[in-house]
Amino acid sequence: MNEFSLGYRIHIDFILLFLILTLCSCGLVILYSASGQNIDLVYSQMVKLFIALLCMIFVAQIPPANLNRLSLFLYIFGIILLVLVMIFGDVGKGAQRWLDLKILRFQPSELMKISVPIIVSSYLSSRFLPPKFFRVIFSCVFIIIPVFLIAQQPDLGTALLVAIAGFSVIFIAGLSWRFLLSIFILSAFSIPLLWHFMRDYQRQRVLTFFDPEKDPLGAGYHIIQSKIAIGSGGFYGKGWLNGTQSHLEFLPERSTDFIFAVLCEEFGMLGVLVILTIYLLIILRGLYISYKAQDAFRQLLASGIILTFFVYIIVNMGMVTGQLPVVGVPLPLISYGGSSIVTLMASFGILMSIQTHKRFLKR
Amino acid sequence: MDLFPKDRVEFILKDRDSESAIIKRRVYLAGLFILVFIILLLSRVFFLTVLQNDHYTTKAKENRQKILPIAPIRGLIYSYDGVILAENKPTYSLEVIPEKISDIDQLIGQLREIIHIDDRDIKRFKKLSGKKRRFERVPLRLNLTENEVALFSINRHLFSSVDVVEGFDRHYPLGEEFVHSIGYVARIDENDLKNISESGENSNYSATTHIGKLGIEESYESFLHGKVGYQKVEVNAEGRVIRVLERKAAKSGKNLYLTINLSLQRIATESLGRKKGAIVAVDPRDGRVLVFVSSPTYDPNKFASGIDTQLYNSLLSSKDKPLINRVIQGKYPPGSTIKPFLGLIALENGTSNTKKEVWCPGWFSLQGHEHRYRDWKKEGHGHTTLDKAIIQSCDVFFYNLAHQLGIDRIYAGLSRFGFGQISGIDINGEGVGLLPSREWKRNNMKEAWFPGETVILGIGQGYALTTPIQLVKATAAIATNGLLVSPRLVLGISSQGEEGLSFISDNTENKINLKNNIFWDEIVSSMKSVVHEVGGTAWRSGLNAKYYFAGKTGTAQIIGIAQEEEYKEEEIPEEFKDHALFIAFAPVKEPEIALAIIVENGGGGSRTAAPIARKMFDNFFMNRNLISKE
């Protein structure tokens, strides 16, 4: 690979693109079955993916240095939007997340998934690493403000992902282990406090997580049915379009948050291995890009993005398999849904931009 | 411009390589971290899909496969002559599972736009919703017209939790005439559910909505009901059936043939007309009930389709008490119909014989008492034998006879004829009447038995109360020289689609053995003279009959008449008029039918009750000339 290759000229990382397209194709196949063979839904998802891919290509053209310069502006813009959502936002599914811009409905919290790692990377990389104590605290403030606003909507899933995006950057920047340990202890103590601030439905989710059988027709229904779907799949699965749990509609939200259960039911353990391998390859490519990036800002941003992507996967799968509480996190690039696809693709665009905007020093 | 400009000096001093090394170490670490989590996740998936596969496969199957019970079709009921008395009519009803509805009022509002639902429907729906099995459908509207079914079908998609259910409604074509014998079915209530589960019939009744509540429908429930079938179906999460996997048809209930002779029943019903009372006729040889009439009556079809409270209350509070089954529950003083039985007891005990005469001056007094027990014939019957006493129904003779027998022997004797006991007819709810004894009086009235009470028992007054079914059973015993058979309404049972009847023959038989069989003949001969000898109390009813029959009239007083007062029928209000009674059997030789007739407030037995018996016998024997044979 060199500065004159096609990828470098059009700022596309073909390895990453190939993996993403493979994953999306698999996702469409699963979605067709999960939606009850609703081809219109699949077309709609294809359109969304196409728009998101265009978005990715566009973002990939922006040199990382510009992102670094724009970081504070992006961040403040995002915060303003979040405040606007609090005041004017549409209520959907019991939570206030959407901003209706007449032409398109838009979740400002999605923007924060990108702008938080950018500002933290930008801020921390402006000084010598590892960061000093007060700089870590200051980064935390950058993270906590939007997280707090998003949690207020309430959108626990996105808030969690935004926080993860920010903190993973701090971790990569070389946060001292002593600090990490104290944070860990502190958060353990703050759980009761957190409980106090939770909404009723959030508490319900946590309680249900610990004992789903307690309310088998209510809050526990999701997790019980999801486990039945996964468990009944076996190693080879029941075959495409043959999942009884999903096709007879026992599995709720099967085309969105619980699509992983459909994968397990119809393609079994084998299908999970294939999908996880593709995910792992994307992550490894991301880590490689981070590893090879030319300055601290790029390194931090790349690894922040890829860690967030990983957390996405693990939280969704953990939830569907009954190991984590039910938080509304979709399975990236497979679940049906608009806003988060665009954000995801945009972040892949950043990765591509980091990989393809390199200064080659003449030796 | 940089928002966070790097400090020039620091930047120069800063070792770019050491900074990069820190980050690279952390990236390695993150990769390791990710690997660990992915392995953990995979082992979880492995645990669920491979290790627990059997468990979850079963659960998935349980989820989608449901076993739906199929209700059996209830057996039909026919009269002896093959006329259908209880059938199943297909109906369509609009049914809802209340557990699946969040706002029932809103749903009703929407449904009302296409189908008429009135307030009574809603009231019944709410009442039924309260007492039912979980996830059982409750009817919101009954008897939908075809038009309404079509209308609903078009709008079906708007009401995911409402169904049009095709079912069968029990229908009684001759409803009022047979409600007291056949009874009716009604919706299974909490009480029935308890009984069903106690008898271990839960699964057999899992699809059944109605159960026999009264009469034959109740007592033959186990024959009529049939055996539940099932279908194994695949359902979706909403419980809607996607396809049928397996099916086992329900086994229909057995059809019943009654012993009731429809044309005879008709005659009896018409003869009684609007009067209150009871007519019951049996075949004395085997206890088959030929006629079973209790008046007034009511329409059982209202109960089968879910009676509303208002109608039920009006039936319940009606002063004519139509809900009372007078044949088995009506309690009447036997009046003079007791006399042939007392005669038999006296002959058996030797306190009387056919020669012994009693002087009847028109009244009777106990020694040392002023009180005069009056005869119905003011001037008296003069010299009276037992034969004459039965023919003319002489009260004085029987006052005397009862006094001589004493309460203990009367009690023992009448008990042998089944008085004071249930007859054992094959429907429930039978009353025992009342056969008084010293012991009974001590226990119930805390008083000793008075001799005067024995005296009036001689003419069937006082404490004694009998049900018409007891009376006919005892009459049949006289007809057959002592054969006591429990009356039976069901002749036989046939399975659907099978030829032939299987007869029910578990009648309990008892034989009354008298010391001398001639006693029977003597009493029967007197009873024959009651109708066939001029001067007999019912002689007009026996005129020109083409057969001989034997009978005894009775008139049961329901108000006491003071010592010096006279019974003036026209001055007494209807509800205090005497009950008219008549017992009879025919032909005298080898009797084929025995009956008991009670017409409430009918006045005298000879005038009101006996002519009904004649009409019935005439119909029963039709053109058979039995006299020439004798």
Short overview:
The complex is a heterodimer of chains A (363) and B (630). Chain A contains 14 helices and three strands. Chain A has 363 residues and is mainly α.
Account of the protein in words:
Chain A has 363 residues and is mainly α. Chain A folds into 2 domains: 7-61 and 212-357, no CATH class; 69-198. Helices cover 70% and strands 3% of the residues of chain A. Chain A has a 3-stranded antiparallel beta sheet. In chain A, helix 13 runs antiparallel to helix 14. With 630 residues, chain B is α+β, with helices and mostly antiparallel strands. Among the domains of chain B are: 14-51; 66-258, Penicillin-binding protein 2a (Domain 2), CATH 3.90.1310. In chain B, strand 8 (229-235) and strand 9 (241-248) form a beta hairpin. Chain B is elongated, with a radius of gyration of 38 Å. The mean pLDDT of chain B is 86. Classes of the chains: A mainly alpha (363), B alpha+beta (630). The interface between A and B is large, with 55 and 45 residues.
Topology:
The complex is a heterodimer of chains A (363) and B (630).
Chain A: H1 6-10, H2 14-34, H3 39-60, H4 64-88, E1 90-92, E2 95-100, E3 105-106, H5 108-125, H6 133-151, H7 156-172, H8 177-197, H9 200-210, H10 221-233, H11 244-247, H12 259-292, H13 296-320, H14 339-356
Antiparallel strand pairs in A: 1-2, 2-3
Helix pairs in contact in A: 2-3, 2-12, 3-14, 4-5, 4-6, 5-6, 5-7, 5-13, 5-14, 6-7, 7-13, 10-12, 12-13, 12-14, 13-14
Chain B: H1 8-13, H2 16-51, H3 53-64, E1 65-70, E2 77-78, E3 84-96, H4 104-112, H5 119-130, E4 138-141, H6 146-154, E5 162-171, H7 175-182, E6 185-187, H8 190-198, E7 210-212, H9 215-219, H10 221-225, E8 229-235, E9 241-248, E10 255-258, H11 262-272, E11 277-282, E12 289-295, H12 301-304, H13 309-317, H14 326-329, H15 339-349, E13 358-360, E14 363-364, E15 373-374, E16 382-384, H16 386-391, H17 395-416, H18 438-445, H19 451-457, H20 468-479, E17 483-485, E18 490-494, E19 502-503, E20 509-511, H21 518-532, H22 539-542, E21 550-556, E22 579-586, E23 593-599, H23 605-621
Parallel strand pairs in B: 2-10
Antiparallel strand pairs in B: 1-8, 2-3, 3-4, 3-5, 6-7, 8-9, 10-18, 11-12, 11-23, 13-16, 14-15, 17-20, 18-19, 21-22, 22-23
